Structures are given as C-alpha cells and as structure tokens.
Amino acid sequence: MNRQFIISGIVISILAFVFGGVIHGVLLAGDYTALGSMMRAPEDATNYFHWNAIAHVFMGFAMTWMYRQGVDAAQPPLMQGIRFGLAVVCLFIVPMFLIYYAVAPFPGMLVVKQIAFETVATTVLGVATAFLNRPAAG
Fold it and tell me: How confident is the model at residue 39 (pLDDT cuts 50, 70, 90)?
C-alpha cells in the first residue's frame, strides 16, 4: 500500500458514490418510487446513508486493489481500464441485479436499466482506476 493506492482508493470511492447517486437517486428515482413500500422511503433511507458511504469506500479500495494485481505496464491504460471495468461488470453488476430480479419482484425493465447504467459507470470507474494506477515513469 502506497500513496498512489490510497489516492486511487479515495478517488474511485468518491466517483462510485457520485455515479451511484446519479443512477439510483436521479435516473432511476421514478422507477424506485413506483415500487412503493418495496423500497425505503427517502426520509427513512437517510438513516442508512452511512452504510451506503461505507459500501462505496469498499468498492473504491477493492477496485484499486484488484486492478493493481493484474496491471500490465506494456498495455495502454485506456484499454486495460475498459477490460477491467467490463470484468467487474461481469463479476458483480450483472449477477447482482439478476439475483435481485430472481428473488424480489423488480420489474424486468428496471433491471435492464440498472444493468445498463451500472455497466457504463463501472467501465468508467475501470478506466479511472487504470489511469490513477499507471506505473511511474522512469
């Protein structure tokens, strides 16, 4: 663990939190409201805000750590970031929302939107992770 790791973990945590807020708090807000009591009411959700923040810190540092395990200094960061982001999508995003769909009465179109928006966001996070963890020149 070095300075680059810490900075990357913090930046990716913040980006993930912002993307999550835009996706789930803005773009999909109407879809979630339509679910009624299946989701927490906004006033109740604020009581759980800290869990959301903690989850995003885990995401940022886990993405940084996982990326650093397989970085190839000979490959351009953009392509490595896209590859890494899509791998995370396949490992976590798609399975998570498909499992939610299988065990809870989420509408199919909502699941499609969740997967689509999260795929874009996670791919961008992968690229950001790659650029923040470029090997030092020298």
Answer: confident
- Whether the pLDDT of residue 23 is over 70: the answer is yes
Query: Inter-axis angle of helices 108-132 and 3-22, to 10 degrees?
Result: 160
Distances (CA, A) of 96 to 35, 42, 68, 118: 19, 23, 24, 11
Amino acid at site 50: H
Task: Indicate if the pLDDT at residue 138 is higher than 70.
Answer: no
Mean pLDDT across 70-77: 88
**Whole-angstrom Cα distance, residue 83 to residue 16?**
18
Cα gap 46→98, rounded to integer Å: 26
d(CA 39, CA 79): 37
Cβ atoms of 125 and 15 closer than 8 Å: yes
